[in-house]
């Protein structure tokens, strides 16, 4: 049995003289959640549309659920679900009616469409609100209903294009919960997002995409480790002594970030314990009081900025 749900090798897509995809590579294992993380215009939606057979690529190999998207588009379509940026829900119908309609559109019989709708409403915590018209739903409820609709046919591979964009923190948490519940069932999920936290929480592996190419991939931990250095964070009690304290940290001054509002200094460290002890000593000797000192791994935000920034610098050079 093929353990890969998605394989992309050297995919290119041009719009006029612009490369939307510039040799993109991607491998996603069956039953995993893969995050495609990148800034605006990176090529995330283009990738999803090609994988979902809605758009043809110019060059490269693209396989989904064991079939080539060019020669086996019908086979691919039968095995996938897609949650696009804007879903096609009928505002006047209730959640249940919407799902039934989707089921009928996908050639489920009336009875099967009904039971499937009920299963999905139950699964996404919408059973109580199934009869309410969709226009009365909150953002989070809508998105969960979208998600339910994309699962009508029980797809092997599910594409989620920015599933939580525009939701408040609670709506986002609800959608995350729903996505997590899919994975146990063996569904492969490819998720695009601009939220680093989302990729960190949901994805088994992450590909960082920038200008049509994957600039890094791995688990969130691997990416963090790749960008290297643990960091030391110091909260200084007296805001006036922030600059002075920044000069005492065991890193080049240019590498120390200063957050004046939080009185927080942060710097990369090479040797954890030595840096910690050295910082305590240096601050003590200068008579600068620290409210907190902590060692930590870099956040995915920092990784992301480093990776995409480095790319920008190389291109400029
Ligand atoms: N139909 C089109 N015609 C011309 N250019 C396009 C078209 N669709 C996308 N592009 C360009 O291709 C590049 C990749 O776009 P894409 O929509 O895949 O990015 P994205 O990563 O999904 O961005 P976002 O985070 O804003 O959704 C962008 O530069 C975009 O302007
Ligand atoms: Mg997009």
TrEMBL record:
The Gene Ontology biological process annotation of the record reads: daunorubicin transport; doxorubicin transport; response to antibiotic
Which N-terminal residues, if any, form the signal peptide? none
How the protein sits in the membrane?
Answer: Peripheral membrane protein
Q: Name one GO cellular component term.
A: plasma membrane
Q: Name one Pfam family in it.
A: ABC_tran
Instruction: Please state which protein family the record places this protein in.
Output: Belongs to the ABC transporter superfamily. Drug exporter-1 (DrugE1) (TC 3.A.1.105) family.
Q: What is its EC number?
A: 7.6.2.2
**Keyword set, alphabetical order:** Antibiotic resistance, ATP-binding, Cell membrane, Membrane, Nucleotide-binding, Translocase, Transport
| Protein name as it appears in the record | ABC-type xenobiotic transporter
What species is this protein from? Streptomyces cinereoruber
């Amino acid at each position: 049995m093929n353990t890969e749900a998605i394989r992309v090798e050297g995919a290119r897509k041009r719009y006029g003289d612009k490369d939307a995809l510039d040799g993109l590579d991607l491998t996603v294992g069956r039953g995993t959640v893969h995050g495609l993380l990148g800034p605006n215009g990176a090529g995330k939606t283009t990738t999803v549309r090609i994988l979902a057979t809605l758009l043809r690529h110019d060059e490269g190999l693209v396989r989904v659920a064991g079939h080539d998207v060019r020669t086996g588009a019908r086979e691919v379509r039968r095995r996938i679900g897609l949650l696009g940026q804007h879903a096609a829900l009928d505002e006047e119908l209730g959640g249940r009616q919407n799902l039934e309609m989707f089921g009928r559109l996908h050639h489920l019989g009336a009875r099967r469409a009904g039971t499937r709708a009920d299963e999905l409403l139950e699964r996404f915590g919408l059973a109580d609100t199934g009869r309410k018209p969709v226009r009365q739903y909150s953002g989070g409820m809508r998105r969960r209903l979208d998600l339910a609709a994309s699962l009508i046919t029980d797809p092997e591979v599910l594409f989620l294009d920015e599933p939580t964009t525009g939701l408040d923190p609670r709506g986002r948490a609800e959608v995350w919960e729903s996505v997590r519940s899919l994975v146990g069932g063996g569904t492969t999920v490819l998720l695009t997002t601009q939220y680093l936290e989302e990729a960190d929480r949901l994805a088994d592996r992450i590909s960082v995409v920038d200008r049509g190419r994957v600039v890094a991939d791995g688990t969130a931990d691997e990416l963090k480790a790749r960008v290297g250095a643990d960091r030391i964070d110091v909260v200084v009690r007296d805001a006036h002594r922030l600059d002075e304290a920044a000069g005492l940290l065991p890193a080049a001054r240019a590498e120390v970030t200063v957050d004046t509002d939080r009185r927080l200094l942060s710097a990369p460290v090479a040797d954890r314990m030595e840096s910690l002890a050295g910082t305590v000593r240096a601050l003590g000797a200068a008579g600068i009081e620290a409210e907190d000192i902590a060692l930590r791994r870099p956040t995915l935000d920092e990784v992301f900025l480093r990776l995409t920034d480095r790319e920008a610098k190389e291109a400029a050079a």
